[in-house]
Each structure stands twice: as C-alpha cells, then as structure tokens.
Amino acid sequence: MELKVGCCGFPQARQIYYDTLPLVELQKTFYQLPRVKTAQKWRHESPPHFEFTLKAWQLITHRPSSPTYKRLTHPIPEELRDSYGSFKPTPENFAAWRDTMEVAAALDAEIVLFQTPATFTPGPKNIAQMREFLSTIERGRLQLAWEPRGQWDPEEAGRLCRELDLLHVVDPFRGREKAGQVIYWRLHGIGSYRHRYTDQELGKLVTMLRRSKKKRAYVLFNNVNMWEDAQRLQEIWRRRA
Length: 241
Fold this sequence. Notes:
An eight-stranded parallel β-sheet has the order 6-5-4-3-2-1-8-7. Strand 7 (183-187), helix 8 and strand 8 (216-221) form a beta-alpha-beta unit. It has helices at residues 14-20, 28-31, 36-45, 58-61, 91-107, 124-136, 154-164, 199-211, 226-239; strands at 2-8, 23-26, 51-55, 111-116, 143-148, 166-168, 183-187, 216-221. 34% of the residues are buried. Helix 3 (36-45) runs parallel beside helix 5 (91-107) and helix 8 packs across helix 9 (226-239). The radius of gyration is 18 Å and the shape is globular. With 241 residues, the protein is of the alpha/beta class. The termini are close together. Helices cover 39% and strands 17% of the residues. It has one domain (2-180): Protein of unknown function UPF0759 (TIM Barrel), CATH 3.20.20.410.
C-alpha cells in the first residue's frame, strides 16, 4: 500500500511542512477560495512529489445560516440565501463548484472533499439534491470524497457513495469506510479535538492499513496535536515496513 500522511491545514510554515510530510488537505478553500494565482504559487513552491487535497467551498454544502459564513470575503446577498448549501442544484452552487475546480486544477489536486454538516440530514429532499448535483457537475480527473456528519447510517452513506462514485470518508476510530478504492481517513481526536494519539493507537491504524487490500491510503490529522501525531504515524509505518 502507498500511504500518504498529512494534516488538515498547515500547522507549520509551509517550507518546513513540505520537507516533513507528503500531503496536506487545504482548509482555507472551505471558508473562502483563494485566488487561482495563490493556488498556483503554493503548487510551484512545493516539491513535485507533494500532494494537495482540498475541501470544497462551503457554499455548496453549508447553508448561509452556518456560522462559518462569517469568514466569507463577500457576504451572500440576502435575496440569494436560499440558493446555497445542501447540494442544491442551483446556478449559484454550480458556479461555486466551477470555482472550486479551478483552484483544484491550479494545485494539481486529485481529490476534493465535500464535508456536510450535521444539519444535512439523510432525508429524501437532501438525498435527491445530492444525487442531482453530483450527477450533473463536471469532475474532470478529480476523485470526489464525502464526509457526512450527523446521523447518517454508514451503510446508507456507503450506498450513496457507490452510486455517485465518491470516496466514503470516515474517522477510523468512529467507523469504517463503506465505499471507494482509496482509503481517505480524517482523524479528529478520540473524544476531543485536544486528544493526542498514543503509540498504541497509531499502531492500531498501521495494523488496519496493513490488513487492507486497497493500494492507496490518505490519513489526515485534524486535532490539536496533528503535526506531531502525523509525523509519529509516518515513522511507525516506516519502522514496520
């Protein structure tokens, strides 16, 4: 298996990060997409082997009532508030996806992650909107991934992922992925964002990965100690190789 370990965002200066880990999942793209020129700069300053993944812009997945909208550069016009979020198949959401794709292309990214909030419940309306939106958009060579939050049944989420050709993104300490030929794990801390993973817990991840028949895995840490934990997992993986 090819394993790439990284962090959700840059917890260190970018040049130090590039020299230490092979992967980063950009978080800024969720709150506010950077300019394409900025994304191109990040790509050009990073080593050839380095890989970017990114979270899709929040306009697609989160409704304007989300507190995360406070970080938008330009507020959503009041008359368009009903056009955003929840995978609504609207011109505004489709435009937000095209902008996300432009940034992904500038980064030479292969994976874009959709993270839905707990308010995006598994009801018929939301599922229908998700199906229509994801069946309509252009993907190019991108692999799309989905991390459902809230009360989604893993089996139901897996069926949707298989139907819509999505990677099922999970925290492996909370559940297992039900779809996709590539593993994409996001570790949010056990019980708390402040959790520091023990060597035993990281060793358990390595054992799970070694037993998998999949050929590629992405493991992203999203906890306070992400920088240290990611390096320790990478070292344990290498020692056990």
